[in-house]
Amino acid sequence: MTAATHSTLFPQVPETADAVLDGLDPEQREVALALNGPVCVLAGAGTGKTRAITHRIAYGVRAGILQPASVLAVTFTNRAAGEMRGRLRQLGAGGVQARTFHSAALRQLQFFWPKAVGGDMPRLLERKIQLVAEAAARCRIRLDRNELRDVTGEIEWAKVTQTVPADYPAAVAKSVRDAPRDPAEIGQIYAMYEQLKRDRSVIDFEDVLLLTVGILQDRHDIADQIRRQYQHFVVDEYQDVSPLQQRLLDLWLGDRDNLCVVGDASQTIYSFTGATPDHLLNFRNRHPSATVVKLVRDYRSTPQVVHLANGLLSHARGRAAEHRLELISQRDPGPDPVYTEYTDEPAEAEGTARRIRDLIAAGVPAGEIAVLYRINAQSEVYEQALADAGVPYQLRGAERFFERQEVREAGIALRGAARAGGNDSLLDDAEDLPSQVRAVLSTKGWTSQPPAGSGAVRDRWESLAALVRLAEDFARAKAGATLSDLVAELDERAAAQHAPTVQGVTLASLHAAKGLEWDAVFLVGLTEGMMPITYAKTDEQVEEERRLLYVGVTRARLHLSLSWALSRAPGGRASRRPTRFLKGLRPGSGSLGSVGSGAGGAAGIERGLGGGRRKPRGPVLCRVCGATLTEAGAMKLMRCEDCPSDMDEGLYERLRDWRSEQASKLAQPAYCVFTDKTLMAIAERVPATDGELSSISGVGVRKLDRFGADVLAICAGGEGGAGADELS
């Protein structure tokens, strides 16, 4: 959480229904006032769509037009649903149901199962991959781990597109879909998987939707009961609706038309899961009387970022492109996007890490910076580079905040201290709310300084530190707030899944970044074959890749960096080309053309060669077997991961002990001194000179100056310890 957000963390509930409309722009206000009949909101990135629809619901409730219990708002992630519930609560519209399609359907299925089917509802299968593996084995089809994951995804796609096992091969052919195996084999595995589920009385998440649809189709009395309950529907991210979800929505609606949908066809990036923008694009055809509102005022990004985003879509083709929204930035001008070309991927990662370190030094919080890539396999080299640069980071996709064990334990401890009040000796010397929270959480592992190293201990500390920051923000926003007030706030946030921010640079895939935003975004690996991805063969698939890059660009509020590497490994042939999507937009790639919306000059392409120190070199060869190395970890060790190691175990342990001392003195994680792989490489090669030490990957000029003397002394059999003292 940053200081800039303190005033909005705990806003006052509007006093009247009309006050709910305060601060909305004309188009958002039009959405909020359109409370009857079908409404279609076409909302570009950063245009305040969640604000518009939550204020619409809140205004309807506060004005007495809508009953809270009669409204069902559905979206696609628990995080988005939690954010919606949190905003509605702050607007005085508690009691409105805001859920994902699956959670709404599951509640209905659990409630109506005894009446519709009888007996106990089948157990919900949390992870289907093990059962898919068994189904494949029963069919005598061998799948490796990656194939198993892909086949599981194919089964999920088949179910959300309402394709039965026998029809799967034909459906794949019709959709021009690249199946990971022979479609006939996948159809066979799919059929066996369904049989195993029936035999064991279990259902999966797709079955939740299918079974709910089946009950509503067959039992008109149950369908009528649900329709009496819910009179008004709101669907967020409507461009991502699958055919099965649309079928369920139609059954919820019946013959009524009190439906508001919100979406942007230019952000359709999940077609591989069965999502399709057709329902959004056809909405006016299905509902000729619909009110259509376009939100194009971009409050997120600077004119420079918006200019590039509009430029990307100006070259798009296909039906979704025909309905593109040209955004208009509402922010002051900012820096131009930076385009950087590197010799190889390690150089790109190191250059990105240096830029990030400079941004943090200039005052940009680490939590407001993201590195986004096309596939998760690209993360390793950036994890390594950020660790070497001493920059904290977090991988997106971890367990939800309030479900973490340490957060649950902290909540129990805070609740107990709040009940005890002045009788709790822990609070004797705590004069204000933040100090009370720090005192209580100190019994759960929180300290004023983060622990050295990474892993579970550091993750636990980060969670507790986030609670401490939230308490500090809460105390600033609510003068005189007590520990009981904070506990109540935490309980409400837990119910809404509204988690405080854990600081650290975010590493995420472009798909995982959808719906998020940062002050600074680094889009990396933008080469042909990665963007668009190699397996995007058809025009439609390539256009979805363009939309994916558009989503990445529009995540940035202020700083935007786009980069690519000409080869994968140092010394490799410079055969890669930057993505075609930037042609005509980046300097030196042709005419820029007129794309509207704002400020515009583009920065020149920088040549990122490791800050001027990195020189192209030949292929990195394994010093054991002589094979060419391509993986970052193997290149650091100068050997294949599975080649025998001649590491001096005693030296490695002495280096680890020294590293712990340095990290403690610096109050930084241990990996900020040297990573485990770098220590292993040092212990294997036992350098005797500055030159030998600096040739090891992960020991740059900065770290050689700081720690070189210590490390060489330890390698020579002595003790080190001056590095951190000299630094401080």
Q: Any overview of this molecule?
A:
The protein has 728 residues and is α/β, with parallel strands linked by helices. 46% of the residues lie in helices and 11% in strands. The chain contains 30 helices and 17 strands. The longest helix has 22 residues, at 456-477. The protein is globular and about 85 Å long.
Blueprint of the fold:
Elements: H1 6-9, H2 17-20, H3 26-33, E1 39-43, H4 49-62, E2 71-75, H5 78-90, E3 97-100, H6 101-116, E4 123-124, H7 129-138, H8 145-160, H9 168-175, H10 183-200, E5 202-203, H11 205-218, H12 220-229, E6 232-235, H13 243-253, E7 259-263, H14 278-281, H15 283-286, E8 291-295, E9 297-298, H16 303-314, H17 319-322, E10 328-329, E11 338-344, H18 345-361, E12 369-373, H19 379-388, E13 393-395, H20 405-420, H21 433-441, H22 456-477, H23 483-496, E14 505-509, E15 518-523, H24 539-553, E16 556-567, E17 605-608, H25 632-637, H26 649-666, H27 676-685, H28 690-694, H29 701-715, H30 723-727
Parallel strand pairs: 1-7, 1-8, 2-3, 2-6, 4-5, 6-7, 9-10, 11-16, 11-17, 12-14, 12-15, 13-14, 15-16
What strand order characterises the main sheet? 13-14-12-15-16-11-17
Mean pLDDT: 83
Level of helix content? Answer: 40-55%
The low-confidence parts are 1-7, 592-604, 610-618, 723-728
Distance between the termini: 27 Å
Question: Number of helical runs?
Answer: 30
